[in-house]
Write a structure and sequence with these properties.
CATH architecture of the largest domain: 3-Layer(aba) Sandwich
CATH topology of the largest domain: Rossmann fold
Oligomer: single chain
Number of domains: 2
Strand order of the largest sheet: 6-7-8-3-9-10
Family: Belongs to the ABC transporter superfamily.
Organism: Neorhizobium phenanthreniclasticum
Number of helices: 12
Bound molecules: adenosine-5'-triphosphate
CATH class of the largest domain: Alpha Beta
Strand content: 25-35%
Protein name: ATP-binding cassette domain-containing protein
Distance between the termini: 55 Å
Low-confidence stretches: none
Number of strands: 14
Radius of gyration: 24 Å
Pfam family, one: NIL
GO molecular function, one term: ATP binding
Mean pLDDT: 92
Shape: elongated
Length: 345
């Protein structure tokens, strides 16, 4: 649906003051999928998304949306393209002097639709986002989540093929975020809309994006299925971004006691990751049996990434050679992914 081919974007006129915001981006966004772009502040996420609707032009390379190269479009071509692309924002960008209905109607008025056609379109859209009864309310009378629902209805008014989301849930509390993500997921499934979202919130990507790309200082450093990238991050930036996710961190009290090498009477601390088929099996009880030694469970989470089950358990057991050999054998047989985090006395 969207392809970035060797895209570079530089800001600034003369050579000395030039800043390279994007550097050789190759990325393809699958039709009908929800794709997340994550990265730190200033990594280039907004610039990337602004190239898609032609608010910025690439310095070199091509941005292709639904077969059309954005860089080659005239002003009227860009207007046509923008009708195919809906956009939602962190701060909703609603017009305060217009009611919910009038905000959603705006893109249709601009497109020149007659009043009756506008009414026929806006009513169902307000129902779709669950705000059919708030049609005459002004933005100041709506909650953050309701404002974003109006933003989503407005973005869908011209029946776009692509929805761009720029930190759409970053100003919302976790519960409201969840309800907006549920709505986006439903729209994606029911309307077959392709969604490209940028966010610094890993939870958002984990919850709804099937695919993810990690951007760091203007370059894509990692990309793939969200489940694969989140369960086995390869790049240091990805690891750092994911370290804040629930369950990724060791409890502080244990982390402080952890030594890098075995000491006298030590126990080894291991993170065991369960995913795919292994997430469904009673492997913990089997592991305890196989080791024939006490196992302490230190931390653990069972969760879903992009709809697939995933578990992470931090355990400690005796670091004697016999127990370690039995553990190794068990991990080999079961295909469990493990990581030795350190040793405690
Ligand atoms: N018009 C501009 N002129 C000069 N530099 C710019 C311009 N727009 C963006 N930049 C620079 O490009 C880099 C990438 O900015 P961008 O807004 O794309 O990052 P971001 O990942 O979206 O950050 P954030 O999460 O903070 O919004 C930043 O260093 C920014 O200062």
């Amino acid at each position: 649906m969207v392809a970035f081919e060797a895209v570079t974007k530089r800001f600034g006129r003369d050579d000395e003051n030039q800043f390279t915001a994007l550097d050789g981006i190759d990325l393809s966004v699958a039709r009908g999928a929800i794709t997340g772009i994550i990265g730190r502040s200033g990594a280039g996420k907004s610039t990337l998304i602004r190239l898609v609707n032609g608010l910025e032009r690439a310095t070199s390379g091509r941005v292709v949306v639904d077969g059309v190269e954005v860089g080659g479009l005239s002003e009227s071509g860009l207007r046509d393209l923008r009708r195919e692309i809906g956009m939602i924002f962190q701060h909703f960008n609603l017009l305060s002097s217009r009611t919910a209905f009038e905000n959603v109607a705006l893109p249709l008025e601009i497109a020149g639709l007659p009043a009756k056609a506008i009414r026929d379109k806006v009513g169902p859209l307000l129902d779709l986002v669950g705000l059919g009864d708030k049609s005459n309310r002004y933005p100041s009378e709506l909650s953050g989540g309701q404002k974003q629902r109006i933003g989503i209805a407005r973005a869908l008014a011209t029946s776009p093929k692509l929805l761009l989301s720029d930190e759409a849930t970053s100003a919302l509390d976790p519960e409201t975020t969840q309800s907006i993500l549920d709505l986006l997921k439903r729209i994606n499934a029911e309307l077959g809309l392709t969604v490209l979202l940028i966010t610094h919130e890993m939870e958002v990507v984990k919850t709804i994006a099937s695919d993810v790309a990690v951007i760091d200082r203007g370059r894509i450093v990692e990309k793939g299925r969200t489940f694969d990238v989140f369960t086995d991050p390869k790049h240091e930036t990805t690891r750092a971004l994911l370290s804040g996710l629930a369950g990724a961190k060791l409890p502080e009290a244990i982390a402080r006691k952890l030594a890098a090498t075995p000491q006298a009477v030590s126990r080894t601390v291991v993170r065991v990751t369960f995913f795919g088929e292994t997430a469904q099996q009673p492997l913990v009880s089997r592991l305890i049996q196989e080791l024939g030694s006490e196992v302490n469970i230190i931390a653990g989470t069972i969760d879903e990434i992009a709809g697939e089950p995933y578990g992470s358990l931090v355990i400690a057991y005796s670091a004697t050679p016999e127990v370690l050999a039995r553990a190794e054998r068990f991990y080999r047989q079961t295909g469990l992914q493990t990581e030795v985090l350190g040793y405690v006395a």
